[in-house]
Amino acid sequence: MELQMVLFRMLVLVIICSVNPFVRASNVINNSCQKDSGNVSISYPFAIGNGCYVEDWFEIVCRSSNNSYDLGFPKPFLKKFNYLEVLEIDIDKARVRVSYPIFSSCTNVTNSTKNLVLEKSPFDFSAGKNSFIAMGCNNSASMWSIFPDDSSSIHKRNICNTTNCCQTTLSSYLKAFSTTIEPKLSSSPYNGSSECKYAFLPNPNMFVPVVLDWSLDNTTFNSLPIRKNMTAREYKNSTCSCYRWLMLQNIPTIFCRCESGYRGNPYLVGGCEGKFLIRNNLFNPFNS
């Protein structure tokens, strides 16, 4: 019996050692696609070059920016958003971090601006990862958000009144908003009229970067090569699962995850790689 248990333990050891644990899978759909730009890894469904990205919204171009401090180094940009700079792509959480401009006003009059519009795109401003922040003495900053509803568009106003700095949360599924900065009258002899006021939408842990959530619609998802390996009703296979939920206006969206024990890119065939896990409740042939 002891010999049998030793043989079983040796068998388990061979099974574990024969599989490369968490081998890094490829993040591009084929080897001809560019894998990075600058210091940013480009992961499918985002990609650089024709035939590499899943559809136009996920097309990235790698080029030098116009900022003098960049020293001409190439950086990735989302082409459909008038070359919005990409800072990081998080496939696991279906998020992309982008560089977002700060709205400022250095006059004593009310100023407004329209911001990035994400309508008809697979992106929205992440409610859980962003805040609306205003800075400046005697400053009132308002964010007017517009998001779809079954009946009509809803306008939600988040007001941020401050004597120095304040922040407020965002609505879920935010697709578009405008920002207004207006000076507030003060009884103080110094009312900050010559000071610049600022309003912006950063990640709370950063300064300028903004986080966008993304997902795929039915048509785009069905065009993925991994869809052929999944059942018609259940969006999953042995290594990854895809989840479908309804957003506002009952618009279905889909995102994918690698199964427990696997890591990699769930949007690619064979993109999720991992290792076998030996569990205590597995059948032991030597117990009988």
Question: What does it look like?
Answer:
The protein has helices at residues 2-17, 218-222, and strands spanning 36-37, 40-41, 60-64, 74-78, 84-90, 95-99, 103-105, 111-114, 123-125, 132-135, 139-147, 154-162, 165-168, 176-183, 197-200, 209-214, 240-246, 252-258, 262-264, 272-274. With 288 residues, it is mainly beta. The strands form six sheets. Strands 3-4-5-6-16-9 form a six-stranded antiparallel β-sheet, with no helix packed on it. Strand 5 and strand 6 (95-99) form a beta hairpin.
Quick description:
The chain is mainly beta and about 290 residues long. It has helices spanning about 1-15, 220; strands at about 35, 40, 60-65, 75-80, 85-90, 95-100, 105, 110-115, 125, 130-135, 140-145, 155-160, 165-170, 175-185, 195-200, 210-215, 240-245, 250-260, 260-265, 270-275. The strands form 6 sheets. It has a 6-stranded antiparallel beta sheet, with no helix packed on it. Strands 7-15-10-13 form a 4-stranded antiparallel beta sheet, with no helix packed on it. The chain has a 4-stranded antiparallel beta sheet with strand order 8-14-11-12, with no helix packed on it.
